[in-house]
Design a protein that fits this description.
Helix content: 10-25%
Shape: globular
Bound molecules: inosinic acid, magnesium ion
Number of domains: 1
Number of helices: 4
CATH topology: Rossmann fold
Number of strands: 12
Strand content: 35-45%
Order of helices and strands: EEEEHEHEEHEHEEEE
Strand order of the largest sheet: 7-6-5-8-9-10
CATH architecture: 3-Layer(aba) Sandwich
Distance between the termini: 30 Å
Largest sheet: 6 strands, mixed
C-alpha cells in the first residue's frame, strides 16, 4: 500500500459554532512530532498484509521473527490476523542514535539456529530505512547456514533504501521523514503511541 497522507492528520475540535482543525502534537525529548498516520490506517494495512500471508503460507507453519524493539506492536497485530498454525520469536539489532542511522548494525540478541533450520521464517521489521539492518539479518542467516528468510516490514522508505535485496512484504511506503509511534522510537520514547507521528521539520 502506498500511503499518501495529508501533511498532518487533522483533529476537529468543536467550540460552539466553530470547528477548529488541528494536528495533535507530542513532545519527545527536544523534538516535536505531529500526527501523521492513524492507528486505523495502520491496522488496515497490516490486515491486507496478513491476507497475502494467509494465501502464501497456507498449509505451512511459518515462524514470525520480530526485530526488537521496534516491531513488537506490528508483530502482535500481524500474527493475530494469521489464520494458520505458526510460531513466534524475536531477534534484536540496533543501529540508530537519535534520528540518524549510525550505519553500523549490532546484533543484541542472537539467532536460535537449531530452531530456525529448514523452516519458513518471516522477519518482521518496523521500518526499512537505509536497509542496513535487514542486510545484516540476511547475512547472519547465510553465515548460520539457514535458508533466506522472507522480509516483511510495516513501513518502507524507498528514497532512503540503498540496497538491492527484495523486501517481500511492505504494508506502507512512506516519504523519507523521521517517524515515531506504534513501536517506533526517538531515543527510547514514543513506542507506546497508538498512532504514528512525524517530526516537525522546523526544529
Ligand atoms: P535501517 O537499518 O537504516 O534500514 O533502519 C532500520 C532501523 O532503524 C529500524 O529497525 C528502526 O529501529 C530504525 N529507524 C529507521 N527509520 C526510523 C524512523 O523514521 N523512526 C524511528 N526509527 C527508525
Ligand atoms: Mg529504533
Amino acid at each position: 500500500m502506498k500511503f499518501k497522507p495529508p501533511n498532518s492528520l487533522l483533529f476537529f475540535v468543536n467550540l460552539g459554532f466553530f470547528k477548529i482543525a488541528m494536528a495533535k502534537t507530542v513532545q519527545l525529548h527536544d523534538k516535536t512530532f505531529e500526527t501523521y498516520i492513524s492507528e486505523a490506517e495502520i491496522l488496515a494495512a497490516i490486515g491486507e498484509m496478513a491476507e497475502r500471508m494467509n494465501r502464501d503460507f497456507e498449509g505451512k507453519t511459518p515462524i514470525f521473527l520480530g526485530v526488537l524493539n521496534g516491531a513488537f506492536m506490528f508483530h502482535a497485530d500481524l500474527v493475530r490476523h494469521f489464520n494458520g498454525p505458526c510460531e513466534v520469536g524475536f531477534v534484536r539489532y540496533g543501529s540508530y542514535v537519535g534520528t540518524e542511522s549510525t550505519g553500523e548494525v549490532v546484533q543484541l540478541l542472537g539467532l536460535d539456529t537449531a530452531w530456525l533450520r529448514d523452516r519458513e521464517v518471516i522477519i518482521l521489521e518496523d521500518i526499512v530505512d537505509t536497509g542496513n539492518t535487514v542486510e545484516r539479518i540476511l547475512s547472519d542467516f547465510e553465515s548460520a547456514g539457514l535458508k533466506r528468510p522472507f522480509i516483511a516490514t510495516l513501513f518502507y522508505k524507498p528514497e532512503a533504501f540503498q540496497k538491492d535485496y527484495k523486501v517481500d512484504y511492505v504494508a506502507m511506503e512512506i516519504p523519507n521523514a523521521f517517524i515515531v509511534g506504534y513501536g517506533l522510537d526517538y531515543d527510547g520514547l514514543g513506542r507506546n503511541l497508538p498512532d504514528v507521528y512525524q517530526i516537525v521539520e522546523t526544529q
